[in-house]
């Protein structure tokens, strides 16, 4: 299969590309703007993958990346961090909204057979008990999740209106190697390794449904191969866990001093709990293979062994972001 993977130099995208090249023998073109979150290093072990540097909201760049044609477009490209969407929402509207529109138009122009939109459990909003199904109402809380929800609706409209074979995959919280350290798990792992404070928002009792990144990649593969056009598929992790418990486990695994845990001001509009029912994607033959305990162990080891990857991040622009967000310096 020849795939165009948009946002393939980011965390989930690069893990997905690696999986497809290794397990499926796919030919992959990546279109990526290389924002702070997208890095060439994430693809450096995949010399046969072509990287086109450009934005999904730039129709010419999309045309260049599609070239003589692709069998499918898988769109991971997005602004993805909820905290950044609260302080600077404009990039979220542009990339997640306008960018998705340009890709859908390109898919029509080039008569691409399948379009897969990578979406999130956050489009459903927060749920105290039980789990969301694909029929649950869309009730996003943050500018990030609202921009992703808008994109999902646009994708569905291209199926109904133009007959484009669209699919939507809504994943729960991913974790694993190559994740930019602004997100909970890599931030806590690296801070713990350095003896920096571990900033827990609010009471730390918010619950997330953790999905190992390769399991999400495999789920997306099932939807790409067997999903019904026009449909959305939830892909949820096998284990849920309150944030403070995640942090405690990281403290334990890194051997850090628990006194570095620090409760800080909560995120505005913070969703309390996410939970996805994944029966529909299970019916396509998918099952999560990595439980949270094992996945977290692998993740901590990866960060421990790959300082070459995160050192330039922690000593670069990320410092400024961290200081702005947390009002304190990184050690
Ligand atoms: P990420 O921030 O690590 O990567 C995003 C990638 O998109 C980067 O490579 C970046 O350079 C690229 N990008 C950003 N703006 C672009 C633009 N305008 N044009 C082209 N490329 C652009 O994100 P991630 O965590 O890997 O998430 C990937 C996708 O999966 C997103 O759509 C996100 O909404 C979705 N998702 C993420 C999670 C999660 O837990 N991280 C869970 C479910 C769904
Ligand atoms: O649920 C899927 C979503 O997961 C994706 O769509 C998003 O792209 C991804 O960023 C992620 O969103 P969250 O907001 O859930 O992830 P984050 O890692 O930012 O935070 C996870 C939880 O940890 C959340 O309850 C906020 C909390 N948190 C986060 C940070 C960065 C802290 O307590 N302290 C922190 O410093």
TrEMBL record:
Alphabetical keyword list: Lyase, NAD
Listed cofactors: NAD(+)
Keyword NAD carried by entry: yes
Top EC group: lyase
CDD domains assigned: dTDP_GD_SDR_e
Family (UniProt): Belongs to the NAD(P)-dependent epimerase/dehydratase family. dTDP-glucose dehydratase subfamily.
UniProt protein name: dTDP-glucose 4,6-dehydratase
Organism: Capillimicrobium parvum
Name of the gene this protein is made from: rffG_3
